[in-house]
Amino acid sequence: MSQIFVLAEHRKGSLREITWEMLNKGAELASRSGSELVAVLLGNRMDSFAGELAHGADRVLVVEDEQLENYNSEIYQNVLSRLLSEYEPVLTLIGHTAFGMDLAPSLAAEMGMPLSTDCIDVDLEGDKLTATRQMYGGKVNAEVSFAPAKQYLVTLRSGMFPAEAAATKDGKIEKSDFPPSATDRKKFIEYLEAAIGAVDITQADVLVSVGQGIGDIKNMPLVEELASSLGATLSCSRPVVDRKWLPKGHQVGTSGKTVKPKVYLAIGISGAFQHVAGVKASTIIAINKDPKAPIFRVADYGIVGDLFQVVPLLKDKVTALKGS
Amino acid sequence: MDIVVCVKRVPDTSEADVIIAKDERTVEAGDLVFDINEWDKYAVEEAVLLKEKYGGTVTAVTLGPDETEDTLRRCFATGADKAIRLTDSAFEGSDAAAIAKIIHQAVKDLKFDLIFTGTQASDDGYGQVGPVLASLLGTPHASVVTQVDIADGKARVQRELEGGLSEVVEVPLPAVFTIQTGINEPRYVSIMGVRKAAGKEIETAGLADLGLTAEDVGEKGSMTKVERLFLPPVTKEAEIIQGSPDEASTRLAQIIKDKGGFS
Ligand SMILES: Cc1cc2nc3c(=O)[nH]c(=O)nc-3n(C[C@H](O)[C@H](O)[C@H](O)COP(=O)(O)OP(=O)(O)OC[C@H]3O[C@@H](n4cnc5c(N)ncnc54)[C@H](O)[C@@H]3O)c2cc1C
Ligand SMILES: Nc1ncnc2c1ncn2[C@@H]1O[C@H](COP(=O)(O)O)[C@@H](O)[C@H]1O
Prior knowledge:
The complex is a heterodimer. By secondary structure, chain A is of the alpha/beta class. Helix content of chain A is 28%, strand content 29%.
């Protein structure tokens, strides 16, 4: 029976959500193509994770070794390339995360396998695989085809599929004997936690969030004033932090923080997936001069307009409403 | 410290209208403004900073048509010493792995301690070229790098993970790193600076110079292919508040209030 592999991702003692997202997608593909869904788990002392994964896969393939304790793309690749050669799964799913971005391209290159990265969907009809991904900052979708091959590799974007553990399966756990052959090239040293900043954007009820559209640090008072009129906290997209217009603690997104305010006001933010993945707001409002900006596909309300015109006006209207 | 930096010329589409061309596989380039990929700007700066600290050379490499010479001149103006442009009509349609294959041929015999690429290109967002190139060269790599420190023939780099977490890894040289934005503050490059680099020599190489055949590159040499571009289906549409800026902001203030934004 053909197999679909899902590479479980875990860090610092917990399985990451992307694992369940891939298992859910994988289960759908497996049932349609009559394949077996296999969760592949590499790590050290993995019993509890293996038990959890067994509820979401037909089989859990476990490789345990001290060297696999922390993620190291070289050691993972060393084990995975041998697993893939041995079991020959038709499709292997890996998360398009910092982990998958480091691992998948060189694994595919070593194996001579076709790889499509950062896919938002994947479809397997018989042995024909197609993938959907985004280009140009989410403004265009692309349908990708693959040259005929025995095995394919796809990395999936986070947040595209449900993360709830389906818990419908009762897979058997199989310990596989493919210990990593020693490599001493790339060494994991330690994790570094970002410094805790003065403000905690994750606790805010209302966030005024500013993006690259603000153009220059000297324009920041504009959004600061709006935030203070609302009694809101200021947050931002990544380029604002990269340019040091705001400290890192204010960044919303995959490499920043996940926020869950009642109201999220995105000003001059295009809506890249790495940004919106961190926005779990009840109401999202976007102000952007580009009517095609992807942020309007996740927002509830929007104004298409120049922020330099809209933001000062909005501040005045808020102040007026407050007084009334 | 000899460093090779891969740079790509990309369209800035953050504010532009992206129009799918008739072939349904590419976008109309006509009205788009092109510049160096944002991630590569940081990669070039990091290479030049390391050169300024340790000595050595910086070589910028790009694969693309004539216009990409501008991108290389921008690298000269930032502090690159040499530039190589890989160009051949046969390269068209190459996927990320094929691009890495072509760049590999161009750099494998160069003397280098480090190769930098961007974490991803802003147009295709593959995030593949760097690690595939490393694999072909047989060197170690690290992706999404936000700090590089060099000591005793090794690099200690920080890799950005999710949620504000980073990891430190140690990698012997030579190595390939994909550079993340924010690693440094790219210097300002003036138009004058780019003009001054106009006279600098740019080496070029095509298919045959690189020891490749038409089978190795383009669509034939690629394992993935973009079949069709289409606009993302509308699953949810924001209610766009109409009216003059004054009217729209009045309504928006009320909406913010109703949704619990203030009282
Ligand atoms: C590994 C990785 C991790 C990442 N993590 C994050 C993350 O955690 N958070 C994050 O935000 N990004 C992250 N990114 C970056 C992300 O891909 C985007 O580059 C970024 O989110 C874009 O920020 P932006 O929307 O502010 O800028 P842009 O994409 O440049 O958008 C600017 C917007 O402003 C609008 N605009 C311009 N001028 C005006 C005006 N006068 N009035 C109104 N609107 C205007 C434009 O139309 C445009 O839509 C990550 C990328 C990678 C590769
Ligand atoms: N045509 C190209 N020429 C030179 N470098 C490239 C090219 N395409 C991609 N790269 C490099 O690879 C990085 C990642 O690109 P990608 O894998 O396409 O997302 C870019 O930031 C560049 O450093």
